[in-house]
């Protein structure tokens, strides 16, 4: 089938087939977002998500991928609106805390250090000190394997005047705690070596 | 509607509403992928994409968001399989070249320095020196604004034995050329200051 004239590399010299997880680990560092989603009474819950991307310029849209068992999955199925935030270095502990507890069991915002701020268009609150917050109206969704992609249209955006850099997840080599999350500036000050 | 007891930040002290593009710019640096997609004859075309994410663990799946007018959009609509690759620092010129030319006009692989390598499962080739390559079978897709999200199931994965880091797109402050793309190690050697 391949009729391309390009000379091919001799496979095996420089390219190696590996288990999927080994190739996936080369994604790091990976951006992380907070999903702030309301329940039926409008009470917000916060979940960190490693899988997100912009997905439209006009209108501006963001997509997040959320696993079926997550509490936020049910919230996003029912919500008309939500907020996507870029955590800053003020949020390292909150990313870990909100990622290791479920909104099905506790009020994560009450139990965390997160501070809310009023949004401009939607009823769901912003997160103070997030590098950026995007108010979203729910859009189309798509089941993909064990996750659902939720796409939302951005109707307003905000930035922190204190923190302008978002957190990156450096990967499991850096442990499971807050030391796993750093901004680019913090990385530049480190030696890129896991502790 | 909001009945949450949490104390709210005084809006305006630290949080500022801004035009959407100003908040979006806080996404940087952003990962970039190559989409290697075949035409009906099996000839591959390469497009860099800034919007991608993993979207399932089991099976492993990757999603990419591609604008309607892109040549690759039509290819992915018809293709049964394709390859997603993480460009390495060997690919800076190729990212720029493939991002500023269309496969509708020229054979980008012929015209670039890209070297192909045979895949294990699919007929679409891998890219030598990519930090990682993921062979994908086409899955579900979703229209979102002016882009379509294409989700694919990863059926095999490969890594480069020469290059283990993927490129990041540092954003428009760094210009439109190859200097805009760096690995994390290169960033650590720089001072994070646009040229």
How would you describe this structure to a colleague?
The structure is a homodimer of 195-residue chains. Chain A is an alpha+beta fold and 195 residues long. Chain A has a single domain (29-189), classed as Electron Transport, Fmn-binding Protein, Chain A (Pnp Oxidase, Chain A, Roll). Helices cover 16% and strands 36% of the residues of chain A. Chain A has 5 helices and 13 strands. Chain A starts with 14 loop residues before the first strand and ends in a 6-residue tail after the last helix. The model of chain A has no long low-confidence stretch (mean pLDDT 91). The interface between A and B is large, with 91 and 91 residues.
> Which protein chains make the most extensive interface, counting residues with beta carbons within 8 Å of the other chain's beta carbons?
A-B, 91 and 91 residues
Quickly count the domains of chain A: 1
Describe the strand arrangement of the main beta sheet of chain A, using strand numbers.
4-3-7-10-11-6-5
- Described by the principal axes of the CA atoms, the overall outline of chain A is globular
């Amino acid at each position: 089938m391949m009729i391309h004239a390009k000379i091919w590399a001799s496979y095996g010299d420089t390219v190696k087939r590996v288990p999927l997880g080994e190739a996936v680990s080369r994604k790091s560092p990976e951006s992380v977002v907070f999903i702030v989603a309301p329940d039926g009474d409008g009470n917000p819950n916060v979940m960190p998500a490693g899988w997100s991307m912009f997905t439209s310029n006009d209108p501006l849209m963001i997509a997040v991928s959320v696993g079926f068992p997550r509490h936020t999955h049910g919230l996003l199925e029912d919500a008309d609106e939500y907020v996507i935030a870029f955590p800053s270095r003020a949020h390292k502990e909150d990313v870990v805390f909100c990622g290791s507890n479920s909104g099905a069991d506790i009020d994560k915002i009450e139990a965390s250090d997160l501070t809310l701020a009023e949004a401009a268009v939607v009823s769901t609150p912003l997160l103070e000190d997030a590098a950026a917050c995007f108010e979203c109206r729910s859009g189309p969704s798509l089941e993909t394997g064990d996750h659902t992609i939720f796409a939302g249209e951005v109707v307003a955006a905000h930035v922190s005047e204190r923190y302008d850099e978002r957190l990156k997840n450096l990967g499991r080599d850096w442990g499971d705690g807050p030391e796993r999350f750093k901004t680019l500036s913090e990385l530049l000050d480190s030696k890129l070596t896991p502790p």
